[in-house]
Amino acid sequence: MRPTTLGDLRRAVEAGQVPRRSVRSELRENLVRKLRAGERLFPGIIGYDDTVVPQLVNAILSRHHFILLGLRGQAKSRILRALVDLLDDELPVVAGCEINDDPLAPLCGACRRRLQADGDALEVAWRPRELRFVEKLATPDVTIADILGDIDPIKAARGGLQLSDELTMHFGLLPRAHRGIFAINELPDLAGKIQVGLFNILQEGDVQIKGYPVRLPLDVLMVFSANPEDYTARGKIITPLKDRIGSEIRTHYPTSRAVAQAITAQEAWIERDGGGAGTPGRYRVPAYVREIVEEVAFQARADSKIDKRSGVSQRLPITVIENVVSNAERRAILNGEALVAPRVTDVYAALPSITGKFELEYEGELRGAAAVATDLVRAAVSNVFMGYLDAADLRPIVEWFDMGGTLQASDTTPAAGLLEATRVVQGLHELAERVIGEAAPAPPLLASAVDFVLEGLYAQKKISRTDDWRYEAAEHPRRVAGGRPIEPPLDQGLPTPGGGRKKYYN
Questions:
Q1: Long-range contact list for 207-214, CB < 8 A, 24+ apart?
Q2: Cα-flanking dihedrals φ and ψ of residue 77, to 5°?
Q3: Neighbours of 328 (CB within 10 A)
């Protein structure tokens, strides 16, 4: 039974049934227990086991306040929120206290007065660990009152108190994180005077509010996140605060395509089986499509036309794979196919989920975001294609095109139609089956592999491809003249399913 009064709590502490320790000691001891038991630390954080996690462990074992430095999309906020798992399940607090005071040693004046009045009968409540994590996104408009607190004249008037009385104080976010974890994201965006208030609390445990000195020796773990480029781009972390942060930990993007795929598989919504009436019954994303999507992000991070200081978030492959599956789903619904099997063509159709995920340098601005994104996809297809079919004999297929063969397809071409049109290309279907690794794959899956081979040959510059816009004359009579397709204006948007964006391989 949990103690519900101060007297019961005191006896439980003396008997060793309830631990009494600082929050940083609590985190340290629980971490040590997990290490000894061989439990997984920071579940859901992938790719940091040999780099970031050991540094986090060292910081917690050292009882340090720490900061995570890294570009966008490197799981900094998720790491900070995962610290909650190292807290005790519940913590005894003074019931109704704004700052979760320790019943055995309360800080705020209201709790001390209640202790004098109630003694051992003081009511004790239990606070779950999820509520002991307070997070604040730093923005330029954040005030010292938001973080630390302010004098509340209404409290003073109602209680007949002087403004200098401690009971007139309205506590901010940091005091309300007492005996817990206080996280600030994007620390450089916080005004300098607010940062001064933070380091004063960290080191001396006091602060001045409206000219009145207030002692707040808070028991709190302070953690921060920041983009290292923000030191000069938008703001900076003042030197005295940096000096009081015990550890500075650098995060990074996935170091391999396999790690990136694991992150995307965890975060992306691609398992859509049972999506409701009228939706396809099965979804199967080929491995090469997943690899191409991840490779797009790797190509973007190395491209000179993209600003490396801004970074390319891991959210890029997550949103791209979702769009890829959605485009394949749209094709399956239009053609009445039961199996959704994304193609490389669907990656090109997912450009809207790519262009907003990076900042361009001057050279990239001249070329345009859509053109840069298209180049990234082509380079990604080329790299993945080499990994699958580098040693394969591609000459029969290339020779078929060299002899004048042409193919036409679009992102809405049904699997049966694509397979029928490509059956005349010598060795193409056999090579596609080799890519899939199955003797008789389902038609949508085989069509996806055929599309991969064709796009790979195009990316390797072994065959050529032209994109063209064609519209059904019945639907767009003014946009087709003498059988010649007319490029739609920019405000026209995508064509209707009756036409579509056609690809011509030759």
A1: 207/148, 209/144, 209/148, 209/149, 209/150, 209/151, 209/169, 210/150, 210/151, 210/163, 212/151, 212/163, 212/164, 214/149, 214/166, 214/169
A2: -65, -35
A3: 27
Residue among 71, 75, 72, 37 at smallest CA distance from 56: 75
One DSSP character per residue, 236-283 reads ---HHHHHH--EEEE----SSHHHHHHHHHHHS----TT--TTS-SEE
Tell me what percent of the chain is helix, strand and coil, each rounded to the nearest 5: 45, 15, 40
* Nearest Cα to Cα of residue 287 among 445, 419, 144: 445
Cβ-contact 5, 123 below 8 angstroms: yes
Measured in whole angstroms, the distance separating CA 187 from the mean position of its chain's CA atoms is: 18
One pLDDT digit (tens) per residue for the chain, 506 residues: 789 999 999 999 999 999 999 999 999 999 999 999 999 999 999 999 999 999 999 999 999 999 999 998 999 999 999 999 999 999 999 999 989 999 999 988 888 889 999 999 999 999 999 999 999 998 888 888 888 877 776 666 666 666 566 666 778 898 899 999 999 999 988 888 888 878 777 777 666 666 666 677 889 999 999 988 654 445 688 888 888 899 999 999 999 999 999 999 999 998 876 555 556 668 999 999 999 999 999 999 999 999 988 889 999 999 999 999 999 999 999 999 989 999 999 999 999 999 999 999 999 999 999 999 999 999 999 999 999 988 788 999 999 999 999 999 888 999 999 999 999 999 999 999 999 988 788 999 999 999 999 999 999 999 998 876 443 333 333 333 333 333 443 333 333 333 456 777 87
Residue 341's nearest CA partner among 387, 432, 261, 280 is 280
Token representation of residue 470: 């064609």
Q: Can you count the helices (H) and strands (E) in the chain? A: 21, 18
> If you search the block for the tokens 């019931």, which residue do you land on?
95
Reading the block at residue 449, the tokens are 């592999």
Q: Which residues contact 404 (CB under 8 A, 6 or more apart)?
A: 506
CATH number of the 6-250 domain: 3.40.50.300
Other Cβ atoms closer than 10 A to 124? 20
Domains of the chain: which residue ranges? 6-250, 257-463
**How many CB atoms lie under 10 A from the CB of residue 205?**
14
